C-alpha cells in the first residue's frame, strides 16, 4: 500500500537517523543535513544535477572546493623593485699641493682640501682649477698606497705639469686654488658577490687601484683578477701597487702593452682586452679607460651575463 503524500520515511545514514520527505531522494536528504559532503568543485568534475528541493536547510554543509594554482605564479618569480640610491653631492675647496712624475708620461697630482670629501673607491669627482674648466677625475691613492683623509690623489697623463694645461684649461701648479664636487659616476666598489675582475687602461689604474686596495681590506678572501694595459710598457707605472697586492694574496695579475720596445718579460704583447680571462655570470667587472676599452669590456661582460661598472677617463686624462 502506498504511503500518503504527506507521510515521511525514516532511514539511518552513518548512524544518524534522517527524515526523508516525499519527492526527495535519500542522497539529497543526506546532503541537505550535512551528513555527507557534496562533490561539486572538484578538479575535472562538473556540477551535479540540481536538487528538486529549493529551500535550503540551516544544517546544509558548505561545498568543498579545491583551488588550482595559477601556473604563471609558479613559473614567473617575483622581482624586487629596483632601488635607486641618490647620494648627496658635496662641494669642497682647496689647492694643488704637489705634482710628481710617476712614469715618462704619467704624473701624480695631489690636492689638499680644507675638509675631507666623502667618497667611495671607484667614485669620481668634478675638479675645477681657478681659471680653468671642470674635469671629471677618479681619486685614488699613491702608488705606495698612501693618502691623507683631506687629500685627493690623481694619476694623469703628461710628462710634466705643462702638459696638463690642455686638460684643465689653465696652468697646473702648486698653490693654485681648486674646487671639487662629488661623488659622481657609477663605478663604485660594491662588496660581496662573485669574483672581482678589474681592468685598467693607462691612468685608468687610478680607480682600479682604489677598488683593489679596499677589497683586500674589506674582503680578504674574495678572488680578484687584475688586467692592466698601456700603449707603451714604460707607462706601466703601478708596479709598487702590484707588489702590495701580490703580498696580500692577489696572484691573477696580467700586464700588457701594445709596443714591444723595452717590454719587460712579465708584460704581454697586445691590447689588454685580449688578455681578459673568460668571464662568468657571477663575476663583477670594473673597468676604467678610454671609451673603446670600456666598450670592448662591456661586450665581454654582457656576453657572459656578468655585472659591469665602468669608470670612464676624461679625454687626455
Itemize the secondary structure elements and their pairings:
Layout: E1 9-13, E2 16-20, H1 26-32, H2 71-75, E3 90-103, E4 106-113, E5 124-129, E6 134-137, E7 151-157, H3 165-168, E8 177-184, E9 196-201, H4 205-218, E10 224-230, H5 239-247, E11 252-257, E12 267-269, E13 284-289, H6 291-304, E14 307-312
Parallel strand pairs: 9-10, 9-13, 10-11, 11-12, 13-14
Antiparallel strand pairs: 1-2, 3-4, 3-8, 4-7, 5-6, 5-8
Organism: Methylorubrum rhodesianum
Domain FAD-binding FR-type: 89-190
Protein name: Ferredoxin--NAD(+) reductase
Give structural notes.
This protein has 317 residues and is an alpha/beta fold. The chain is built from six helices and 14 strands. The strands form three sheets. The protein has a six-stranded antiparallel beta sheet. Strands 12-11-10-9-13-14 form a six-stranded parallel beta sheet, sandwiched between helices. The protein is globular. The N and C termini lie far apart (114 Å). InterPro entries: FAD-bd_FR_type, FNR_nucleotide-bd, MRET.
Structure summary:
This protein is an alpha/beta fold. 17% of the residues lie in helices and 29% in strands.
Under the CATH scheme, the architecture of the domain at 196-312 is: 3-Layer(aba) Sandwich
**Main β sheet profile:** 6 strands, antiparallel
So what's the CATH class of the domain at 196-312? Alpha Beta
- Total helices: the number is 6
Output the helix-strand order: EEHHEEEEEHEEHEHEEEHE
In spatial order, strands of the major sheet run 6-5-8-3-4-7
CATH fold name of the domain at 196-312, please?
Rossmann fold
Q: Which stretches are poorly predicted, pLDDT < 50 over at least 5 residues?
A: 1-6, 37-84
Corresponding CATH superfamily of the domain at 196-312: Nucleotide-binding domain of ferredoxin-NADP reductase (FNR) module
Secondary-structure content class: alpha/beta
- Supply Rg: 37 Å
Shape: globular
Mean pLDDT: 81
Helix content: 10-25%
Domain FAD-binding FR-type: 89-190
InterPro entries: FAD-bd_FR_type (IPR017927), FNR_nucleotide-bd (IPR039261), MRET (IPR050415)
Protein name: Ferredoxin--NAD(+) reductase
